[in-house]
Write a structure and sequence with these properties.
Helix content: 40-55%
Largest sheet: 2 strands, antiparallel
Order of helices and strands: EEEEHH
Length: about 90
């Protein structure tokens, strides 16, 4: 029943009835009820916008953690020691 609503009545005081032919009507005004969409287009747009802003952050975090898991290069450290010890 919650997927149907009366566009003319207040949502706080809505109650539904079923006519003899099976159509749901509002018990206050008698107009047929309209069906609510499961997913609205604005919700889809908002989800795409959120993903567009969060995707770069997720990619930077995965790159950072991937670099942290690699062992550091011992050759680079050895070259620094050799260069700094030469007079």
């Amino acid at each position: 029943m919650s997927r149907y609503y009366c566009p003319y009545c207040s949502p706080n005081y809505q109650s539904h009835q079923k006519r003899i032919d099976g159509v749901l009507i509002c018990s206050q005004c008698g107009d047929p009820l309209e069906r609510k969409p499961l997913v609205k287009p604005t919700q889809i747009f908002a989800l795409i916008a959120v993903f567009a802003f969060i995707a770069p952050l997720i990619m930077m975090m995965t790159t950072f953690f991937r670099d942290q898991n690699k062992p550091s290069s011992q050759q680079f450290i050895h070259l620094i020691v050799v260069i700094s010890t030469k007079p």
